[in-house]
Each structure stands twice: as C-alpha cells, then as structure tokens.
Design a protein that fits this description.
By secondary structure, the chain is mainly α. It contains ten helices and no strands.
Length: 321
C-alpha cells in the first residue's frame, strides 16, 4: 500500500491519494483485525485472561514495530539521493501513509482490546461474527460493557488532555508522535466496538429470541440512535473548546469512531441479510456467489464516486480551514 501511494503521489488530483489511502487502509485494518481475533481465539490463549492480555500487548508491539520500520523506509526512499530535494508531493505521500498506518493500528488494536474487555467481564472469549449470537449474557454484564466503553472514551480524552497540558504533541516528533496518535485513536475505536457489542448484549439480555437478522437490525437502530445523540453532544462540546482555542482532536476522534460504529452495525445487518436471502431463495453455488457479491459491488460503485467527489473534498477542505 505504501508503494502504491508512493507511485501515486505525483498525480494532480488532491482527492485521489486520500481516497485510495482511506479505502485500502480500512481493508488492511479489517484484515489485520480479523487476523488478530483469530489468533486470540486459539486454544491455549482464549481461556486465559493473562495470555489474552499478553497477546494483545504483543499485537500493539508488533504494530508499533511495523510502523517504525515503515517510517524508516519512507525516510530512506526520500533521502537516498543526497541531491534530491523533498517535494510537496513527497510530503503529501508521507502524511497520507501516516494516516493509513494510524487507521490500521487503531482498527486492529481497538478490536483486540475490546475482546479482552469482554473476556474479563464474562470470563470467556465471545464470538464476533454477525451470524454468531451471544449466549448466557446477563444484564450486569451489559452494564459493565457500556461502562467500559465510556471508560475508553474518557481515556482518550484524558490522554489528549494530559498531552496538551504537557505540550507532548509539540515535544514529540517523528515516530513517537505517530505512535501516540495511533494508540490514542485505538482507544476511541475500542470505545466504538464496546458500544456495538453492548447493544448486541443488551438486545439478548432483554430476552430477544427471534431470528438473527432481526437482532442485527435492532442493534443497528439502537447504535445509530445512541451514536447520533452522542455525536451531536460531542460536536457541540468540540466547537466550544475550539472557540476557546483548546485541543479537540480526542473529541473529533471519538466522533469518527462513533460514526464507524454505526457503519459496522449496518454492515453486519446487510451481511446477514444478503447471506440469508441468497441461501433461502436461490439454489446452487453459482447463484449464491452472484447474489452474495454482485449487490455489494453495485453499491460500492454507486457510493464511492459520491464519497470521493463530494464528501471527501468537503472533509479535506474543513480540515485545512
């Protein structure tokens, strides 16, 4: 992905580089996330909170190491020719790759931390695929998961507040600053995952016994409403802090994470819907494959141009201003 973005850095379009970077960052982040979750579920790890926590710390260390190696490789690619002057396109490339790395680290590590939190609440590692429903969840466990999610959000805010008070983001430079930003984003992503699975636990703790797709839709609606209210409140607070010239990055990160949580819940609902519809209404592997993959492709071809040509340019313009 870094190599692809490197060869695209000279293109004139201001939105093409961040478009490709964002899409492939999420694809890579989800791949790393499910890879880490698969290792967490291995025998010998999944039944021990200490081993699970140690493995999650190992994930953080490995991701941090890869980030540092990537930073060194980029510096070498730019400075290998002593007569070459760093250009504006080089700066754009390095900034975009940093954003990509932050997204990958935060998605993977945030999900792993959420799994550890759920383990310590209930004493077992829970499933995470949309077709797997939770079993034996008690009401106090749903409350504990909600409190844990709020706690991860507060941790994000407290970390940013402490960094601002100590002027850490100005003092930190290079790889240390990037790692700090990535791990801060990971805590906000963990908050979003906790909110998603809190909604799932809550639906089943209230006694839901219907079909799984109905639960996924109820979860999506619950998370959408809760996130919309939280985003409005956080946005008002962030605007007030910005007027007082305070750092609002933590709140903006939480807003983005809540938006991702809404996307995650609806993705799970559509995933279940398409899968069940194709299995129940069409026979044969070929029909199932077509109905399972063609609609998402059509949806992507419809939504991606609007996102790339309208939403992303407005977002980039707002970030600059």
């Amino acid at each position: 992905l870094q190599v692809l973005l490197y060869f695209m850095r000279g293109l004139q379009s201001e939105t093409l580089l961040p478009s490709v970077g964002t899409i492939f960052a999420h694809l890579t982040g989800f791949a790393a996330m499910f890879c880490g979750a698969g290792f967490q579920a291995l025998d010998g790890i999944k039944d021990s909170g200490i081993k699970l926590s140690g493995f999650t710390l190992g994930i953080a260390a490995v991701l941090g190491f890869i980030t540092l190696v990537g930073a060194k490789a980029r510096e070498y690619a730019i400075s290998r020719d002593p007569d070459r002057v760093k250009t504006e396109s080089d700066e754009r490339w390095m900034e975009e790759v940093e954003e990509v790395e932050n997204d990958i680290v935060s998605l993977c590590l945030g999900f792993a931390v959420m799994q550890v939190i759920r383990f310590f609440i209930s004493g077992r590692l829970h499933p995470y695929e949309p077709y797997e429903e939770p079993e034996g969840v008690q009401q106090w466990e749903t409350h504990a998961l909600l409190v844990s999610g709020v706690g991860m959000g507060l941790l994000t805010c407290l970390g940013s507040f402490a960094a601002t008070t100590a002027d850490a983001e100005t003092r930190l430079s290079g790889s240390a600053r990037r790692l700090f930003s990535a791990y801060r984003n990971a805590s906000s992503i963990s908050m979003a995952w906790c909110l998603l699975f809190w909604a799932e636990w809550q639906v089943y703790a209230l006694g839901y016994t219907g079909i799984r797709i109905g639960a996924c839709l109820a979860i999506a609606l619950l998370v959408t409403v809760a996130s919309a209210v939280a985003i409005l409140a956080l946005d008002v607070i962030a605007d007030e802090l910005a007027r007082a010239r305070h750092n609002t990055r933590a709140l903006r990160s939480m807003i983005l994470s809540l938006g991702l949580a809404v996307g995650f819940t609806w993705e799970r609902a559509f995933d279940m819907g398409l899968d069940k519809f194709s299995l129940h209404h069409f026979s044969g592997q070929g029909h199932h494959f077509l109905l399972r993959h063609i609609p998402p492709l059509v949806l992507s071809l419809t939504v991606l141009p609007a996102w790339s040509w309208y939403i992303l340019p407005h977002t980039l313009q707002k970030e600059k201003s």
